[in-house]
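tool=predict chain=A
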Amino acid sequence: MAVAKKRRPTRNKRRQAIKKQLQYIKRNLAHIEQLIDAGATIEGLNKKQYKTRLVLTEVSRQQQWLFDNNKHSMEDRIVSLSQPHIRPIVRGKAGKSVEFGAKLSASCFEGYVFLDRMSWDNFNESGDLKAQVEAYYRFTGYYPESVHADRIYRTRENRAWCKERGIRISGPPLGRPPANVSKSKKKQAAYDERIRNAIEGKFGQGKRRFGLNRVMAKLDNTSGTVIAITFLVMNLTTWWRRVFCVFLCLFGKRTPVLGLMIISHYNWSGLTQEKLILNRA
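tool=predict ok
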């Protein structure tokens, strides 16, 4: 507790505290093993207690290895006893450099969001672009006119792959930026960013309205089900909004002014039907 109350404990103090805690855990686990050797059984433990015991044993092994090798990270490091499948993911955001939870890779097409990949381990999203574009091709029968992706997707390999198939990828070219940029390129870049805001808004909508940032499930499969259902409800909301818009268009035949406004807005929303938008969360 003395070390935990300090705002910035020294390295030696921190290692001493970790050493003591590891010794306490090792002692308690040794007591359990002695009771088992003496004839006690673990059949009386319920499923949760038995799982907690296995997790504690693995956490003790991992932390002891980190302490002995003077390391701070390792593969599949457990950071939660109740959710051992969660891994720390370094994001580098201001005030929140490390996040815990599922990492998502999603795409947006005609206002609908597709959950392409979900993992509790950290991964590089740039490798998902080809699979997402190919999924778009299987769904529509043709490649998209352009792909509006985050910066991490704009690798040299992905750019070459998109160029072979006649797909324009958003964002500035790789290398040193040119000194003079034409107005048409600036206008195109601003237009691409406006289109990419759709997928950013979907993540914000999921967190704000559908509880995507408050997944209360504890197991990895139930948490994944909750996240998938959240995206399903978001798509159903988009579909129902468009059905209601069609109803208003039919109703607008009796009120020409209202019908003209609705039809013009509905036609404008259909102009981006060949844009594939990718993002991560």
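The first helix runs from residue 2 to 5. Confidence is low (pLDDT under 50) at residues 257-273.
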